[in-house]
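Table S2 (continued). Query chain:
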Amino acid sequence: MCDLQVTGQTGLSNCAEPFENNKNYQKAIRFASPELQNELQGYIEAIKDRNEIDRKNRIYSDALEKLGYSTTEQSFREAANLFQAIPGWKDADDKHEEALKKAETARRKALYDEAVALAQEGDSKSISDAINMLSSISDSKLAGKKVEELTSLVKSAKEKEAAAEEKRLRLEGLKLQYDEENKENLSIINGRGSIFYNHRVAKDHLTQETEAKSGGGLRIWGIIQTSLGVLLLFLDSPGIGIINLLFGIAALGIGLALLSAKMKKISELKKEIADYEKKIAILNSIPTLDEYVKAHKE
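Corresponding output:
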């Protein structure tokens, strides 16, 4: 009894675990009288009974707690499994059935919510899939009513989809017809946006180029220096005259070169603008695809 940490023989029933495998117990039971053997065995059975009661109470308590906070099918089924593990204990059998019923209710609610969310996507396939999901719980008044509602919606959705597909095919056909009728100018039509943009940019560049300086002052200075150089040559100052003459010719040459470059750039821009305006004239004579489609409404 010392190694079992109990005082007195009756204290054996308070051991935490059965002691039939205890070596001292096995020695004692070998030489004990039948009455003592039965008494000791009774203590062991009492410990087992007490521990079994504790085990079942713990499982029952855990199952009851889980049943109380569960909201999903899985959680309710876990609670049901716990109650099922202790059949006949207290009202575990009734609680097991209650948990299963709540699990089924939770399953149906989740299925209903999922089907309603799916149907809200609006296309006929989603609505049809939602109807199929709800059909498995159509014995529910709420689900049955929702099936009736969605059945009318799926018909409407199919009609809208058919109309949309018909419109798409018609627009596709008009686009091919439009491209065929305007195939010679298709590249111009496809570049409509860039043509108008580039035309505006070219006109801005032409304005900037026209207003930009082109060496006019340099040319005037060159003419003056050239004239002064010639005059000095006749006034017996050939050295200074030659220098002025050279500077004047150089300045005049640079000024003329700048003027020539400017005139060339202006000419190129005018040609570019004329080309864009020709394309714009073509575009203005051809209806846009949207205008073409509106003109060919049935």
